[in-house]
Amino acid sequence: MTALPDSLSFVLPLAMFAFVSSVTPGPNNVMLTASGATFGYRRSVPHMLGICLGVVVMVLLIGAGLGAVFEAEPRLYTLLKYVGAAYLVWLAWKIARSGSVDQGHAGHRPFSFWQAAAFQWVNPKAWIMAVGVVATYTPREGFFANLVLSALVLGLVNYPSISVWTLFGSTVGRALRTPQALRSFNWLMAGLLMLSLLPILASHG
Q1: DSSP state, 10?
Q2: CA distances from 185 to 46, 170, 172 (A)
Q3: Close Cβ partners of 162 (under 8 Å, ≥ 6 residues apart)
Q4: Are 33 and 99 in contact (CB under 8 A)?
Q5: Which of 52, 8, 1, 4 is nearest to 163 (CA)?
Q6: Which of 33, 110, 124, 193 could form a disulfide with 92 if both were Cys (CB 3.0 to 4.6 A apart)?
Q7: Residue pair 180/49 in contact by the 8 Å Cβ criterion
Q8: pLDDT digits over 38-55, tens only?
Q9: Is the pLDDT at 71 greater than 80, yes or no?
Q10: Structure confidence at residue 102 (pLDDT)
Q11: What are the sequence ranges of the domains in the chain?
Q12: Is 175 a residue whose pLDDT tops 90?
C-alpha cells in the first residue's frame, strides 16, 4: 500500500479531529440550535459561515505566533477567558428572552456573519480546537504551507458538522407551534449554554 505524501499524511487525522471537535456540544452548537429553532436554517447560514471563518483565522494567527504571546503573558489568556465567560452569560440571557420571529420584536435577529466570526475569539472551545490543530496536527516541516492546509481542512469540515445542529433546531422550531413552546425551548438552550461554562470556570489555566 502506497504511503501518502508527507504533506498529506496528516489530513485524515486532522479531519477526524475537526469533525469530532465541531460536531460535539459547545457554545457555537447550542447557539445554532437556538438560531435554527427561532429563525430557521436559511437565516442562520451567515452565522455558520462566520463560525467557519472565525476558526480558520484563529488557526492561521495562532500558528503565525499569537500562541507565543499568551505563553509570554498568560494573564492575557486568563482575561480573555473570563471576558468570554461573561459574554456567554449575556448571550444565554438573550437566547432565553428570544421568542418566535413572528412576534414582532424588531431587535430579534440571528447572529450576523461578522458577529459569529468575532465570537470565536471569546469562545473557549474554539481556542481549544485552534490550538489543537496547530500544536498536534500540523507538521513542523513545511509548517506554513501545512498551516494553511490545516486551516482549510478545519473550515471545510466545520460547516457540515455545525449544520447538523442548525437543522435540528430548525426541525424542532417547526414542531414548536406556539410562542410559549419556543420560549421554553430557548430557555433550555440558554441553560445548556450556561452549563458549557462550567469547564471554563473550573479550570485555572
Answers
A1: T
A2: 22, 12, 9
A3: 22, 23, 28, 29, 32, 48, 51, 52
A4: no
A5: 52
A6: 193
A7: no
A8: 889 999 999 999 999 999
A9: no
A10: 47
A11: 11-19+28-36+45-100+110-202
A12: no
Specify the residue for cell string 479550570.
203
For residue 173, give the C-alpha cell.
422550531
Q: Which three cell numbers stand for residue 54?
A: 472565525
- Nearest-5° Cα angle at 91, 32 to 169: 20
| Amino acid (one-letter) located at 36 | G
- Segment 119-174, tens digit of pLDDT: 998 888 888 788 888 877 787 777 888 889 999 999 999 999 999 999 998 988 77
Per-position b or e across 170-191, b if 16+ CB within 10 A of its CB: bebbeebeeeeebbebbbebbe
Amino acid at 140: R
Entry pTM? 0.74
